[in-house]
Amino acid sequence: MKLGRYLRYAVLGARILFPTPSQRRYLRAIRDSGLFDRGWYLACYPRMPLICRLMPERHYVLVGEAVGLCPSPDFSPRAYLHLNPALAAEGTPPFAHYIARGRAEGRAAHDLPSGASAPAMPQIAAAGGVTAPHAVLLHLFYRDQWPAFAARLREQPFAFDLFVSLTDDGDPAAEAAIRAQILRDFPAAQIWSFPNLGRDILPFLHIAGSGRLAPYAAVCKLHTKASPHRADGALWREALVEGILAPPGRSAARLVAFAADPAAGFWVADGHVCRGRDWIGANGARMAELAARLGLAPGLDDLAFAAGSIWWVSQGLLAELAATGLTAADFEPEMGQVDGTTAHALERLFGLLALRRGYHIVQTTALDGRAVAL
Q1: In a domain, 340, yes or no
Q2: Distance between CA 278 and CA 10 in Å, rounded?
Q3: Residue 278 has what DSSP assignment?
Q4: Would you tell me how many other CB atoms lie within 10 Å of the CB of residue 151?
Q5: 99 shares a domain with 142
Q6: Which of 16, 134, 211, 342 has a CB 3.0–4.6 Å from the CB of 126, allowing a cystine?
Q7: Mean pLDDT across the stretch 57-68?
Q8: Has residue 47 been placed in a domain?
Q9: In this structure, are residues 374 and 304 in contact, taking their beta carbons and an 8 Å threshold?
Q10: CB 59 within 8 A of CB 48
Q11: pLDDT for position 113
C-alpha cells in the first residue's frame, strides 16, 4: 500500500515539474493576472505534498481545479461552472475563462446559487428503539462503501443501535435498494434520507437535535469520507475508522474507558487532532459568525479539533452539539467545495466548543494508558 502511495506521489511530482505547453501557458496567465492567492491556497490546503507546496500554482492547474479547490477566497471553480455550464462542454478550465473573459464581463465568480427556501428535512421522533448503551451514526453518501462499513460494524463486540443517514439522489429505486441492503445486514437499523446539504454535519446535527441520541452514553459518528482532492483520501478515511473501531476486542475496552471519563469529549484516531490558527484556512469569517451564535468567546488561538469528522462523542458533549440550533437554512448549496463551507467551519468549531466547555479530545492510545489526553 505504501509503495502505491509513493508511486502516486512520484507521478504527481513529475507532472508538477514538467507541465505540458498548454499548462505552461495557463500558468503564465495565472501569474500575469495576479488573481491566485498563494498564501491563502497554502493555508487552506496544508496537507499537500512538499513539492506541491513549493509550486502551488502548478498544483492548482494540474490537480486542484479539477477537484474544486479555490485559487483565492474570491473564486470558486465549482460555482463558476454551475453559473456557466457551457464551459464544461467546451473543456475550458473555469479559472482560465474567468481570467481571459469572465472578469472583464463581470461574471459572478464565487457566489453560490441560493434556493428560495431550505429543503425539507426528515421528521425524527425524540424517542424510540433504544436497545443498547451506545449508538453508531453513519452518513452513507457513497453507498458502495456500505459492505465495508457493515463488515466493520459486525466485528464489534459491544452493543449499539445503528442509525444511517442517506443522501437523496432523486432515484427512489436506488434508495430502496440500499435501504433493503442495510436492513438485511442490520434489521433494527433506523434509516433517514436527507437532502444533499451540509455533508455529514447537517444530518448529524439534525438527528442529534431531535433528541434521538440523548439516551446513549457515547455515539460513534462515521461517514464515507472520500476527500477526492487528496491522493490519500481513502487511506485517510481508513485510518480514522481503524483508530476508533479496531481491533474489535480492544475497541470495546477503549470505549469503556472513554465513556467512564466525564471530561472526555471526543475520541479520535491517533494523529488526527489539529491545533492552531494554521488550520482555519478559508473558514475564518464563517467560524467567527458561528462562534458568536454558539456563545463562544472571540478568538481562535486555542483552536483544536478532531480532523475528518469521524469520532466518538460523549453524552455530555453531545448535548452541547445538539443544542446549537443550526438548521438546513444555515448551510450553503452543495457544489463539491473542499473548504470554506459551514460544514468545514463547524468541524473546527466542534473542537473549540468542546475545549471551551471543559472537555478534552482523546486520542486512541490515551485510552490504552500509553499517552496523556490532549
Answers
A1: yes
A2: 27
A3: G
A4: 10
A5: no
A6: 211
A7: 86
A8: yes
A9: yes
A10: yes
A11: 47
Decide if 165 contacts 137 (C-beta within 8 A): yes
| Separation between Cα atoms, residue 186 and residue 177, nearest integer Å | 14
Do residues 366 and 261 make contact, with C-beta atoms less than 8 angstroms apart? no
Where a domain ends, among 88, 105, 122? Answer: 105
Dihedral, CA of residue 260, residue 306, residue 239 and residue 195, to nearest 10: 110
Please name which of 271, 244, 266, 273 lies closest in space to residue 160, comparing C-alpha atoms. 244
209 and 308 assigned to the same domain: yes
Co-location of 341 and 267 in the same domain: yes
296-337: pLDDT as tens digits: 877 788 899 998 999 999 999 999 999 999 999 888 877 666
DSSP secondary structure, 230-275, as one string: STTHHHHHHHHHHHHH-SHHHHHHHHHHHHH-TTEEEEE-TT-EEE
Grid cell of 281 as nine digits: 484556512
Grid cell at residue 355: 475545549
Task: Report d(CA 283, CA 277) in Å as an integer.
Answer: 11
Establish if 282 belongs to a structural domain.
yes
**In this predicted model, what pLDDT tens digit does every residue of 198-250 receive, in sequence order?**
999 999 999 999 999 999 999 999 999 765 444 445 788 999 999 999 898 89
Q: Residues 353, 282, 26, CA angle at the centre, nearest 5°?
A: 160
Both 305 and 170 in one domain: the answer is yes
Q: Cβ(217)–Cβ(290) under 8 Å?
A: no
Q: Are residues 89 and 159 in the same domain?
A: no
Residue 54 lies in a domain: yes
Task: Please answer whether residues 318 and 205 qualify as being in contact, where contact means their C-beta atoms are separated by less than 8 angstroms.
Answer: no
Q: Please check whether residue 247 is in contact with residue 168, taking contact to mean a CB–CB distance below 8 angstroms.
A: no
Q: Could you give the number of structural domains in the chain?
A: 2
Residues 201, 319, single domain; the answer is yes
CA proximity to 313, closest of 216, 227, 235, 226: 216
Q: Are residues 144 and 272 in the same domain?
A: yes
String of DSSP letters for 340-365: SSHHHHHHHHHHHHHHHTT-EEEEHH
